[in-house]
């Protein structure tokens, strides 16, 4: 065990004197408070300095983070404003359209006060449809999708051929013009040997082929009669625009004396590098690269593929089946233990007192925080994951059952006693049916949490499962599979909730009617 | 048939702030079999507490209640309850609600079903037997509650403002129904109400209670309940004795309310 000491150190950084708190081990053989000598520029920190130093370190880091967050939030404002404008535009357009059609004449349509009348606000189906369609249109226009017409595409990266001229001057002052031909090809297209006629004169034409979203450096002098290194040749103009830049002029420290120029051309940007070569960056447009966001049809195609043939030798049904199996088993176990626990807490002072601290402590702990512990305890097998989901469902179901019992109107219980029912009969015929609506609400929440937890648990450790599919895909940068996984998770989660709601309507029709 | 003896009951409980409440003091009552008695009083006079003690939901700190020559120690099927509202089991049909008591007692279906259907006919719900209770109106629900109580054949029926949540017209019809059922079944009934008219119309005996501590203030013996069994309740109200009695009780309760308000203002 090495003793550690907190030091306040003063040092020079970027020309200013700074003081910072550091933890540092006490060297062997020295004893703190006796023979220990702090390093130069440092003093042993007092208790107050340790606290103030920690606050200072935290504060400076948080300040940087706050700035980043603010910059991010501010830069999102234009996009949000455009989106809101689109929503409003569609709303007014829809209203204008509706005014030409036969107006509905039901009771709600005759209300004059709708702003603030909750019952008059109904989810508008047309708005939902437009909203979903718009998501796909935006997705398609940012990815150049073939599903939507071309005029909706945002400007994509430059593709095709272009050229520009450069003027070269050799050491003797002779000038000659030559052209650089650029051909930008799609990612994944086959590369060719792009050759052009070199032309005449001391400068020869160059050709380069660039994959979209990439850039290229052209060593223009490689086929010219004069070279940069041997003849002091350099470029003095691009497309006839002259400039003063000599890459060979340096000061003692090796810094350039002149700034290399940059030119914005039709097809992209052309810059002279520090070494005098030409850097060509074709226009990238504002579309997303497939690596960041694949087009909808690509995701659909990969869905078809992995549904048919699986991903990494595991079929989609197997991935999905494992995830659902874990959720269902974990949830059922949680309900089997949690509901009786909740009843005990709702019916007995002693059980309420016994379990209240445990439940109230465990409830705010997100199951995700337990993943490392569960892996250490149970390994990465099914037991650990199901235990995690069991815990996720347990507290929710216990609390739902407890509040279901507490929600029984005392008059119902009194009435049942006065009709001669025993305690057991009251539990069976009054308390349990009365708590079913609450339990169903809890079950819906628990299923949602379990579904979220299983995906996260699979991200950390699993052989199969929809979360595992996403992790594997992220290692291969298969964004289409990641996106597909996210969409499947959303759809399945929504489907589970719809099923629970249907079951609720069927099994507890008296909900909210007591 | 059995009557009810309330013997010198007091109810006193501690408050968390160290004080205490004397909810009832020395209440003694003797109710004969087949009597119908209504209880009136300003809020806080302990009438619901008294009913809860008789029902067996609360234990008095002094005194005892006797039914069928035994002391009340808890709720029992011999004392049926009808509550204001919300005491029906909305997960059961009308018929299952009404047959709840016999079913819990483990009786055979053949033995109780005839009586259940008969009671549903009496309260006018013969066409609603298979409906769920939440599909019924408030007045219909209270008729189910009455039928449910009667189906269990209790000796004493305790009613805690059973008609309080109903509209005026429904309420009047239900008052006639209560009188009819009282006469047909001959049950002993204690009815708590806020309405003076209801107390006068439904009470052979009318008990006026006073607050702080809750106690019996005055008792009346009135002929209106007996009259109402065979006559329209509006005709009963035309009786020369009705208006003066009503006025007297109204003034009595009014004065008590004034006193409570005055005391609160002085205290504040």
UniProtKB/TrEMBL annotation, chain A:
Keywords: Cell membrane, Membrane, Transmembrane, Transmembrane helix, Transport. Pfam families: BPD_transp_1 (PF00528). Coiled coil: none annotated. The chain crosses the membrane at residues 69-94, 124-142, 314-341, 361-380, 387-405, 481-500. CDD domains: TM_PBP2 (cd06261). It is a multi-pass membrane protein. GO terms for biological process: alkanesulfonate transmembrane transport; cellular response to sulfur starvation. One of its GO terms (cellular component) is plasma membrane. Residues 320-500 form the ABC transmembrane type-1 domain. InterPro entries: MetI-like, MetI-like_sf. It is found in: Cell membrane. It comes from the Bacteria. PANTHER family: ALKANE SULFONATE ABC TRANSPORTER-RELATED, MEMBRANE SUBUNIT, TAURINE TRANSPORT SYSTEM PERMEASE PROTEIN TAUC. Belongs to the binding-protein-dependent transport system permease family. Probably part of an ABC transporter complex. Probably responsible for the translocation of the substrate across the membrane. This is Putative aliphatic sulfonates transport permease protein SsuC. It comes from Pseudooctadecabacter jejudonensis. The lineage of its organism: Bacteria, Pseudomonadati, Pseudomonadota, Alphaproteobacteria, Rhodobacterales. The gene is ssuC_3.
Automatic annotation (TrEMBL), chain B:
CDD domains: ABC_NrtD_SsuB_transporters. It is an enzyme of class 3 (hydrolase). Residues 4-236 form the ABC transporter domain. Its EC number is 3.6.3.36. PROSITE patterns: ABC_TRANSPORTER_1, ABC_TRANSPORTER_2. Pfam families: ABC_tran (PF00005). GO terms for molecular function: ATP binding; ATP hydrolysis activity. Keywords: ATP-binding, Cell inner membrane, Cell membrane, Hydrolase, Membrane, Nucleotide-binding, Translocase, Transport. InterPro entries: AAA+_ATPase, ABC_transporter-like_ATP-bd, ABC_transporter-like_CS, ABC_transporter_ATP-bind, P-loop_NTPase. The keyword Ribonucleoprotein does not apply. It comes from the Bacteria. Belongs to the ABC transporter superfamily. This is Taurine import ATP-binding protein TauB.
